[in-house]
Amino acid sequence: MRVIVVGAGKVGKHIATDLAKAGHDVLVLDSSKDVVARAEQSGEHPNVAFKVADACEVTQLEEAGLADADVVAAVTGDDEDNLVVSLLAKQEFGVPRVVARVNHPKNEWMFNETWGVDVSVSTPHLLTALVEEAVTVGTLVRLLQFGGGKAGLEEVTLAESSPAAGQQVSELRLPRNCTIVAVLREQSVIVPRGDTRLEAGDEVIVLATSDAEDDVRAALIGG
Questions:
Q1: Do the beta carbons of residue 143 and residue 207 sit within 8 Å?
Q2: Which residues, 6 or more positions from 52, have their beta carbon under 8 angstroms from its beta carbon?
Q3: Structural fold of domain 2-121
Q4: What confidence tens digit (pLDDT) does each residue in 184-196 have?
């Protein structure tokens, strides 16, 4: 897979290095010559290519080969730059998948398909969700959102009173537009099947559209 990461900061370099280790073809763009030079000379990012480029300029994106990218990840520390890169990647180059980093929570509402963003990751929102998930039981917590909020990855720790406790997944009667993707139980990860029986204390990870949230909440929390 051809991946272009925009932003050679700590986040961008970490993402690029992990993707390269997984066997993907990765190019990192950054407008700073010094930042790119340091990254190349460090020797800490094997199999990652770096290029000096202003990713908000169409001609420079064209030179970087954005038209051949399968995924573009805009992860700079500037929300405006990330939005411009996302829009150009989608509208000018038709990149199939565009992922963007949200730095400031007040800007999160703009990171949607209108600006070419397929998936947005809000660091402040994610940290809040993870803290909330760690200290609450019986509450549906949204970890990530997709499609401008039309779908999300959600988590709930089943309370003793949960109507799902003791039930098989097939018995929950969840709507078609949601699915349980994983169950975390006593440090183990269970990929659920229809006959998987849920227990109180299970952390249940659900992928659901926004209009299915009420049904998910009723099935896993009750009330």
A1: no
A2: 29, 30, 31, 32, 33, 36
A3: Rossmann fold (3.40.50)
A4: 998 889 999 999 9
